[in-house]
Design a protein that fits this description.
Blueprint: E1 8-19, H1 26-32, E2 37-38, E3 46-50, E4 55-59, E5 64-70, H2 73-89, E6 99-110, E7 113-115, H3 117-123, E8 127-128, E9 137-141, E10 146-150, E11 155-161, H4 164-180, E12 184-186
Length: 189
Amino acid sequence: MSKTPEPTIRIENVVASVTINQTLDLTQIQRAFPETEYKPAQFPGLVFRLAKPKTATLIFSSGKMVCTGAKSEQESIKAVQTVVKLLKREGFLIKHEPEIEIQNIVASVDLHAKIDLETAAEKLENTMYEPEQFPGLIYRMMEPKVVILMFASGKLVCTGAKTEREVYEAVYKLKNILEENDLITYIPT
């Protein structure tokens, strides 16, 4: 019996919420960093982009921030620490260490197989499949708590994970569920 291929898993985006428990003057930050975007009439947050790691951090006057675009938990934390360090270097008094919480990790996955979405919609619980409206099957996994979009091509999008470990756990759990229910056909390489 040939061994089934390992899924290819790529973290596409990590979203982290941050608080520094103090108010910030966004107009002053924009003056210090002219490359930032701040248009308070359109959006209350300032957009602070970093080239390395390639992220965008939304900064609000409340001291809350949202960092997006990182490709790992570590990269997300590094981006926030870099933004805080740059603010401090420009004389902004940041009194507390940032409290960083990962809110969502989005990953793309290739199972290197075909998935029978019609039968999966019948056999699996917590699914939604309306091919006339969207080509993917939406599968809500309870443990870990993630949502997986499944496509007939064997490609998946996993969203809602709070850790990278949860992404891997969800993908391998789904792979086993699909195999146990004969819903997956591996493509010979």
